User: Fold these one by one.
Assistant:
Number 1:
Amino acid sequence: MSRSVAAELLLLALDEKSGKGLVDGSTLNAALAGTAVAELAAAGALALQEVDGGEVKAGRLRRTGVARPSDPLLAEVVDTCHGKKPGDAVGALTTMTFTDRGAKLQEQLLAELVAEGVLTHERGKVLGLFPTQRWPEADPAVEREVRERVRAVLVLGAEPDPRTALLVSMLSVTKLAPKVFPGDDGKAVQARADAVRESGWAGGAVAKALEDLMAVVMVTTLVPVVVATSS
């Protein structure tokens, strides 16, 4: 079954045994939103306006009318991105707004992976009061294939195809790469992920979305730290 890069990112971002996230929810939601934008651009549903005089200003994303996704949530992502700079589009899809479509995307992807038998959904309570959720693996073969493909790039030095390059780029901006491969040299793995992201494999709206996502992820990462240190 063909899965989105966002679904593959989500699989890698979950600890395969505990079923809990390896990064905080805000960072993951921003990364999923950024991945969705990049995938939609790569598919041709979104494009980066290069010159003024069109329906949107230069440097902003526009709907192309081509390859519009049948999925209602992804169609909503396309409409939200239209007329916005890539970074603003990612921000508009995440916790910077009251409508966190990044969180909705995560919920939808998790539900799909559970329905496919890739993950299981377990609910519990802490101290008998506070509800908890986790998504341990049900079929490890799916995540193993993704992990082996990414490890070939990050550890063995293989050249990525565009799909894997996008996934590795997301691991780079979220600093997830060393956490996904804890048994390998973390600094080397992160450096290789950064090198892939900066290699110029992407162009147009995809490259701009990746560039602007860095700033969005930095904000979502810093906010919890500021709150924690001020409380």
Number 2:
Amino acid sequence: MRIERLRVYGRVLPNVGAKRRTSWARLLRQVYLVIRSAVLWIVSILHFFPVCTFLVILGMFIDPRKNDRPQRWFFRNVLRLAGVRFQVRYAPGFDPTRTSIFVCNHVNIFDAFVIYSAIPQFVRGLELETHFKIPAYGWMMKRFGNIPVPKDTNNPAAFRRLLKRAKQALDDGISLIIFAEGTRTRTGRVGPFQRGAFVLAQYTGYPIVPMSIVGSFEFHRTGSWMLYPSTITVYIHETIETKGMRKEDIDRLRERVHRIVAEPVERALGLREDMSGVPDTTRDAAASRR
């Protein structure tokens, strides 16, 4: 008769066979995830480069606003091919036709694809000016309307130029997306926000729309090449008005937006003990709005 457990002096010894089976199951799952990640990367890259090249060529002849639909299809397809299950939740008062400054947490290199797939309007981002010097890519970013961010934003003259460029884009009806942390998270938590996005909002008077990317840290982490099965949910929160705001209000605005962005992220990570008092002001998005 097979003995699964042995009682010695009142103690129950662990089932060694069960432990071995568990170890083998973990090993097999890890092998599966490695193979899965490799295949997804290959498929995504094979899709990315030819389609991206086509969009660059298309951008030579057609204004980016007029070919926004194929660009959005391209970004969504990259997510699908990477194995992402994707959903968006919009706040009831969100107006997709209003030019705004979207402020979002930064998780990994897929954030641009996630955000562009989630925001139902023409939107562009701020990017380090050194990226604009990269052959082909830099030209594409400039052609698409992204705004170069100087390396030394502490330089008053450089920062003023950035504010003017961003204001011009907003005045032209182009909404902007800003990763207010200025770097990607290494822990999954939302890091401190820098002041730039909120100085811009106060300077221009355009509203801020906080955004939260939830589930992306479980999907892919900076410093790793693994892609894990995950559902990414984007929360587009209620619009915050900034017209008439004083400079003295900038830090309070930054704290408020950080709190809004961080709440669903930390709730998903289980970092807050009691989130029962936090109202969920969002609703599932209809497919037509995406």
Number 3:
Amino acid sequence: MLIRRRLSNVEVWYISINHVLTFLAIFLRVSILLFVLPFYRGTELPTSFKALLALFIALIFYIPLSSKIPPVNTNPIELASVVIGEMILGLIFAMTVLFFLGAFETAGDIISFQMGFGFARVADPVTGVQITLISRFFQIFASLLFFALNGHHFFIRALYTSFVKIPPGSFFESMEHLQLDRIISLSGLIFTLAFKIAAPIIIVLFISEIGMGLIVKFAPQINILVVSFALTIIVGILFAALSIGEWAQAIQDSFKELFLFIFKVLI
């Protein structure tokens, strides 16, 4: 914030170091969130672009927040607590999203294994590891739905609200309000949501395997081992195509739960 003083009939404008530190604290929380979120941390976006985006968002936030939140103290110990608190808050926001997206990737792994695509893997440009084709499909599908539902608008609004509710330097005083135990319990949601998404394909493929077992029992002359691989893939792809609408609804409901969770628990 610019401060004006008159010294010896000369107007002097200077920037308060406390307000500079407040802006840097806002920038730190925003940049941690942007650099960890899977939608922005991929190699497709240059690091310089992500840094400029974080700087722009922090500047937009700082203008109205400068009059609503107390400035950061220059005490070294308090500065260290501010840095640690802002990093943890940014990671908490990002990890909450990663828990939900991890459910979709886990569902893709389960479906790929059941369909026989467990070894058909592609490189994930975000993490650099090998993932299954179905998991990659879910990543792209969930990302498109996230932006279609204006999820990026929600996160900007939620992040701004978090600065009002938890100003820089007040993280450790707000730990009880954050309900960190509920955030940790989100990790169990990965498997619950993954099996909910993958359940239709698992059931259909299980029934098809029972049918092939009956064919072997009553018509042993049929070489079911050769037929089963192609049949499993065809049935899996067919019902996966039929389930896209249900998957879209499940992902949409999951994002709505995520948005409600962030507003109720985090801010």
Number 4:
Amino acid sequence: MLDIRFLREDFKILEDSLMKRGTKLNFNLQDLVSLDQKLKQLRAEISSLRESQNKLSKEISLLKKEKKDASELVEKSRKIGDEISRLSESERGLDSQFKTMWYQLPNILLPDVPFGTDETQNVVVNYFGEPKDFDFEVMPHWDFGKKLGLLDIERAGKVTGSRFSFHVGLGARLVRALLNFMMDLHKADGFIELWPPYLVNEASMYGTGQLPKFRDELFKCADDPYFLIPTAEVPVTNFFRDEILSDDSLPIRFCAYSACFRREAGSYGKDVRGIIRQHQFDKVELVVFCRPEESLNELNFITEQAQKVLKKLKLPYRVIELCSGDLGFGSAKTYDIEVYMAYSKNYREISSCSNFTDFQARRANIRYKPKGGKTRYVHTLNGSGLAIGRTLAAIYEYYQDKDGNLIIPEVLIPYIGLERIESPKC
């Protein structure tokens, strides 16, 4: 949710940000301005009437103490009360209209976000590692995982449906190895571990910005007021909802593993094979709460932290900065990290690190108290550290050898107790 000053004082900044994003609203911004003015006027009237009613109440009390007739003032107070009720009902209706529009506005872009209309205009920041040349034909991760008995997508399709998978035997152990490796790495660098709930209420989804805009992309329980989380960002960010943090506690950095659940509405025909795009997947998430003046440094920090995982796994990758037209709804600035996929010889997103400024904090009402100052909203950031399924897919393709074996990345050997997984002899 935006600071109301963008509507009342910095309207040009709001207009420019929407234009750069290419945001198409189903209402006119001027209608929002008019609604805001009407609400201000209405609330001022209600406040004035309440003051008059309070004054009358004191006068009535005095008259009754003196055993004098207060009926005229009582009637006047009743009429004022009726008017307050009438105006309050109007105020609730206008406020509902206002919030319906207000919650549709995306975050304000930071000034240095590159302008562009779509993902083709994202900016490559840097590359890490030169992809090695293979002297054999690399198998796609879905075929390789199946051949070694590590991955079973067909049976998952039978048990559940499309875009689900079983990790089997040593494949399941590799998932655990990756999870433990990532969490150990982040904890060693000062992140506090959380194990969050996978179901959250509607207020939590509003807090991080999934609602109301992305309702169709979420799994919702039919008979209970809960949603399955699309990312650990939701429960972890809402950990401090409606709280005031101490200045000394900031920055607070959390790392959390969770399963994630997404309907993938609109993804028909994309990545139909393999484990790149699934309805259920595993991910380690990094979430930061900080002072506003620290958020740019924290964005660089979590982006470096996510890269650290890939560096230790020795997987080639690149970092790109998202242009204005490709930026997420709640983000003010985002870096994506894309890992090299050896079979397709291209780069695929494996982490997205974003600075949400105070957008989520306003929705979730997360503040802090600076020393000697008034309470302020924190800035929130998050990033994947990393998506486990996509990391595993990259490993299956990049670490296979010409004999069909899987070489275990050196950093994972202590976690799985093997240096290789051999191809079945047949």
